[in-house]
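note to self: the first set is below, dont mix up w the second
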Amino acid sequence: MTAYELAWYGVDLRTGGIVEDLPALKPSGALSRKLGASTTLQFDLALAGAPPEWEAATAPGRSLLVAVDTATDTPVWAGAVLPRDGGSSTSVQLGAATLEAYLDARFPGTQTMVGVDQATVLTNLIAPALTGGGPPFVIDATATGTVMDYLTDDGDDKTILSCCQEVMGLDGGPEWTIDVAWNPAHSGFVFPVRIRSAIGTQSASPEAVFDFPGCVSEYVLSESYERDKGATRVIARGEGEGSSRLTSTAREASALLAGGWPVWEYRYTPATGITDPDQLEAHAAKSLSLMAQGAQVWSVTAVASVAPRLGRDWGLGDSVRLDVERSPRHPQGTSTVARCWSWELDTGSDTVRPILVED
């Protein structure tokens, strides 16, 4: 049983070099990560315990905060400092966002990619952030074996983040995330941009097992067929009006409908500026695959010091097992293997919360 102790560093955003140790830095909530999206966190820095260079180490737009699990020496979270507030108070308040947010402030320019592997498409979209004065990103991409066409025009003002999320949202689209790791000299950090068909390690028999009763203090299975969560017929639409509006075919969950399910329709516009009918079809197909039987999400709250260790035993995108011996919701017990699509770590309350989604 090893409690989480985090070492916090103020880091230069451009180089990844450590500016200062920040032992007086305290997060006001849980650290969190999510596949293909940014998360945020607020902090309090007590000035009485701040090092001499604390201002440079927390400068908005120029610095980021990195947390390292001291038990395993594993960096687990990094966020760019965006707001900083201080005055007559004895502390300074900081806000930080994981580096996916940086990609929402950079643009891919005009690119035309035809018959290119999905991983190459994402790599090319992110490339301007690597060569144009950005953080020390390191592309870690594995070919998916699936080719696609993708066009973007600089005049559309679509950010790199929006383009990457658009590609990830396609049926069979690749997944991506931005991690944090020590640089080779162990003097600072680099930020691997992982691009895979599926992030993490998927297994029917994962080593990371959360048990109830056991390390799990509580869990909730959330099932929903609310709007945006459940549908048996999906249509994706592009921009425009009336009959000239680009529209996908109606994708239907044929097997469910034949088995007696009612028709629940969902129409939406997946992204701005889509002019490729094939992309609309792929978005509609992906949405149907996710929504046909509704959302099923397992929210698990476990004692962090007892549970499988984040960053060592499991991580974002990995399969984990939840074993329930019995509970009011599952009196006969249940066992499920699902992927971690996001997580929260609150060291103050010694809790870790993987959010698990069944494929």
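second set (the one i keep forgetting abt)
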Amino acid sequence: MLGGNSRSRTHTRRTRGGTASACAAAVTATAVLLGPAAPASADLVPDYRPEQWGLQTIAAQELWEDTQGQGVTVALPGTSVNEEHPDLVDNVRVDTRFGTGGDAGAGSAMASLAAAHGHGFDADGGMLGVAPESTVLVLPTGDRLAEAVRFAAQEDVQVILLPETDGAADLAGATQAAVDNGVLVVGPAGGPEDPNVLTVAGTDADGALVPNSPDTGSVALTAPGADLMAADTEVGYTEVTGAQYAAAMAAGAAALLRSDHPHLLPGQVRDALVEGSRSGPEGLPALHLPSAQEQATAIAQDNPAFEEDVLSGDGQGWAVPVWVWFATVGAVVVLGVLLVVLWIRRSTADPYGVEAERQEEDERIAAERAAEAPPASRRKRGGRRRRTRGK
């Protein structure tokens, strides 16, 4: 995962610059001499897909008809990435709130192995990652790696890919927070022990562990990790070897499974990758996506979107206490009753205004009668009428 004995190495192949310019000049000169011909620009786009033995080994293409990682974000904290590389444009988002540090060479290679989409006409050139339609959230940082991991866990990512470091940073708390938030954490094997991280070691094209690999006891999964074609810091490509690049392949594989089975918990996706593997070097599990997909499908069938253990709070990750469900249902019922009562009262309370008109008419009649009544006599009751004299 972090640090370790695995040594990463790179061998850069330049696909732009002198050689490409010379080829372009030759094509232009030929066009001038011979006149218009079929477009030759596609011939200038390098196609390294046949050389991507890692994709063929894990059989990633067999899942691409169902999913290519769409809707999934892989966070890559602690590194920089060339987001303008033609194979990564629009698949990478860089957030520099934690700094601008990190190995851009390693970061660009890891991002491309996980999520490169190729380029050229119909993406027929360049290279492809394991999940070419997923997104990579890059969080460059110096000594704030743990903060970056915690931030990524809150940013609606599904997978976190850890870089190779010197092991000085204590990430146990951050990785636990990530798992609690439903994120699968993947990293290179060989660093401090962390049960929250799916640790990956690299193998070569012959299926053997790469030289200077960490002790097998620290390895949970193996994946292609030697002489892998990857994006460099400019617009070209490089061959890389190391555990962190094998971890990038595994992170891309996790993105495919999480895209196809979004309701599975991190531990269930991890089990699918490990248990749905093939036998690898020294008895270690070797990543194989078709069998991992079968395992994930079986887990999904046994664990539907609304699981009993999740409802009872016994699951991991997003467990919801039972009392919350009862309180929610009770609130809905009470609200429904109140709405029904209000509707009944409104529907029976003189909807056409008849009572109001009747009361107004009674008041008008009473006022008219009062106006027509004769004035009251001023003679006091019981008084004697005085007789007129002389009569």
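remember for set 2: The chain has two domains: 9-29+46-305, 311-346.
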